Amino acid sequence: MSVDDDLAQAEKYPDGDLLAILYRQHADIAEALDRVTHSTGDERSANFTAVTAFMKKHETAEQQVVRPIIEETDRGEEADARNAEEQQADQAIAALSALDMDSFEFDAQFDQLKAAVAAHAEAEEHNEFPVIESSRTVEQRTELGRQFLQAQAE
Predict the structure, then answer these.
(1) Per residue in 67-85, pLDDT tens?
(2) Is the pTM above the cut of 0.70?
(3) Contact by Cβ (8 Å): 131, 18
(4) Which residue segment(s) compose the domain that 105 sits in?
């Protein structure tokens, strides 16, 4: 989905609902990745550091709050696939961190990371979000949203 599509989806849910939070954060991550692409030098380095730190907090909270829901609905393979993608992203980020951020090699590898992150978000939105929506009430999703944000803050 595009940033605008993710934001439109987020608006379908009440503030604090886990799904609203997830859609908004997917849009935020996509925008932050674009800021890295369109910057250079110290600004690019700062943008890269900011987006990768946010992505790590996002994926940690997903692993603590989202994946257990998916696993309990007998979709362990789905949860495992998303966790594996997140591990691959962590490895790609580590490799990118070792490169000159203004190099062609960084640009090429960063484009691959952006594509992988977009595919990962799309898989979550199509395979995990419907499970959360159908298996949890609005009140439960709001409590899960609170837990998600708390997990990110730790």
Answers:
(1) 999 999 877 788 889 989 9
(2) yes
(3) no
(4) 3-153
